[in-house]
Design brief:
Layout (H helix, E strand, L loop, with lengths): L8 H21 L8 H4 L3 H18 L4 E3 L7 E3 L2 E9 L7 E6 L6 E8 L2 E8 H9 L6 E3 L8 E5 L6 H4 L2 E3 H12 L9
Parallel strand pairs: 3-5
Antiparallel strand pairs: 1-2, 2-3, 4-8, 5-6, 6-9, 7-8
Length: 194
């Protein structure tokens, strides 16, 4: 049997197995069909982070915030004179959470976490002191060390449908996240024309 253009029987066998596995993985992508964010899921993880930075920077600039690139790698952007570390996550389909990864103790004032679901988006803005304080508290399970052996990076896990008490004070919906960013930066954007 010739599978498509594959002639080698070993490659055919491997392709047959790949075909049976495909259904398992395609089911996870079904939720993203028709989503304006679906194309992001197809990019490598390193690229997804850069896309998230551009999405957040573009959204805030469109809302009237002064946004510029950071002069160094300790922050991603400068927004209204505040050094901002941007963390981005798409919804993890299997357990419906966001994971904002690679938080470090670097030179930034605020971490802004932007999460996109197939047809929704969420935002949290957390001042660095609050990130570090929560990270080092043993009782807070929303932000934990990312690697068992090291304590130099952390991640924040959030279920957008039932966020924990700690993260809820820093945003949630895009509007709530925008309000928190306004509070931190002192800039209030004009209302959207609805």
């Amino acid at each position: 049997m010739i599978l498509g253009n594959i002639v080698d029987p070993e490659v055919q066998a491997l392709a047959g197995i790949a075909s049976t596995l495909q259904a398992d993985y395609m089911a996870n992508d079904q939720a993203w069909i028709g989503s304006p964010f679906a194309w992001i899921k197809q990019r490598p993880s390193r690229t997804i982070g850069a896309i998230g930075e551009k999405l957040l920077a573009g959204w805030l600039a469109a809302r009237g915030f002064n946004v510029s690139r950071s002069p160094d790698s300790d922050a991603d952007r400068v927004i209204e004179r505040k050094r901002v570390e941007i963390k981005f996550s798409t919804l993890w389909t299997d357990n419906h959470i966001y994971k904002f990864q690679q938080l470090r103790d670097q030179d930034y004032d605020v971490a802004i976490c932007l999460g996109v679901s197939p047809f929704d988006a969420h935002c949290w803005a957390i001042e660095k002191a609050d990130v570090l304080s929560a990270w080092h508290e043993d009782v807070n399970r929303e932000i934990i060390g990312q690697h068992a052996e090291g304590k130099d990076t952390a991640w924040i896990t959030v279920s957008p449908s039932s966020p924990g008490r700690w993260i809820s004070q820093y945003g949630g919906t895009l509007r709530q996240g925008l309000d928190q960013i306004s509070k931190i930066t002192g800039f209030t954007p004009p209302p959207l024309n609805e």
